[in-house]
Design brief:
The protein is an all-alpha fold and 233 residues long. Helix content is 72%, strand content 3%. Keywords: Membrane, Transmembrane, Transmembrane helix.
Length: 233
């Protein structure tokens, strides 16, 4: 998978009239789908147009020998630092998402293990013991399935942050749902420490997903905020 730096270097080389090293269709497809590289191309194109001709001591006006370095150096340093900062935040968030995915997977396995002894069979080995709780077993299995699904979803989001926008609604809704029931249990005196742990992990999951999405789509968020403030610059 091509990185932003590779695409941006290819854009600069193409604007400079040099071999880009990548097919134009590949570059254009990436730019169309990537707000960061699209903004870079716009800035670089404007700068390239402004520097297309420079004064020459021989024939008055001639193209500069190499625009690539000039274009890269001319891009707003603060903007480039912002890109580097967002990439660092995104890398950190992706690591946390992987850790959370592993945590949910282990949690799911432990939940399945908790079903042992909850629904024992009778002496004949065929019928349930009168003290069995098959409903509890089903609830535990469904909980384990939900936690394993969250583990898979978080792993996919860590791999492809673009998927976060479609996935985050699940843990966010679950967290909001549990907040209400946890508040009820606190009022009625039914609160258990395990409830708090589950809620805290879900809240951390949601905030990590938000942080990863903002870091990955930071340019889009920034442009939307500027549009709301009517400040295009």
């Amino acid at each position: 998978m091509l990185s932003h730096d590779e695409i941006q270097s290819a854009i600069s080389a193409r604007l400079d009239g040099e071999p880009a090293g990548l097919d134009d269709a590949v570059i254009d497809a990436h730019v169309q789908a990537c707000p960061e590289c699209s903004a870079f191309q716009t800035r670089a194109a404007h700068l390239s147009a402004a520097l297309m001709y420079v004064e020459s001591p021989h024939d008055g006006m001639s193209p500069p020998p190499d625009l690539a370095d000039t274009i890269l150096a001319g891009v707003d340093p603060q903007w480039r630092r912002g890109m580097a900062s967002r990439r660092a935040w995104l890398a950190t968030a992706r690591v946390v998402l992987v850790v959370l995915a592993v945590l949910y997977a282990v949690w799911a396995v432990r939940t399945v293990g908790a079903t042992d002894g909850v629904a024992p069979v009778g002496a004949d080995g065929l019928t349930l013991d009168p003290q069995a709780h098959p409903e509890t077993v089903r609830a535990l299995i469904e909980t384990a399935g939900l936690r394993f699904s969250l583990a898979v979803g978080l792993a996919m989001c860590a791999w492809r942050p673009q998927l976060i926008a479609g996935f985050i609604v699940i843990p966010a809704t679950l967290a909001a749902f549990l907040v209400g029931f946890t508040a009820r249990d606190v009022v009625l005196g039914w609160f258990a420490p395990g409830q708090l742990l589950s809620l805290v992990v879900l809240v951390v999951t949601v905030f990590t997903l938000v942080a990863a999405w903002v870091a990955d789509q930071g340019l889009v968020v920034s442009q939307a905020w500027r549009a709301l403030r009517s400040d295009p610059l």
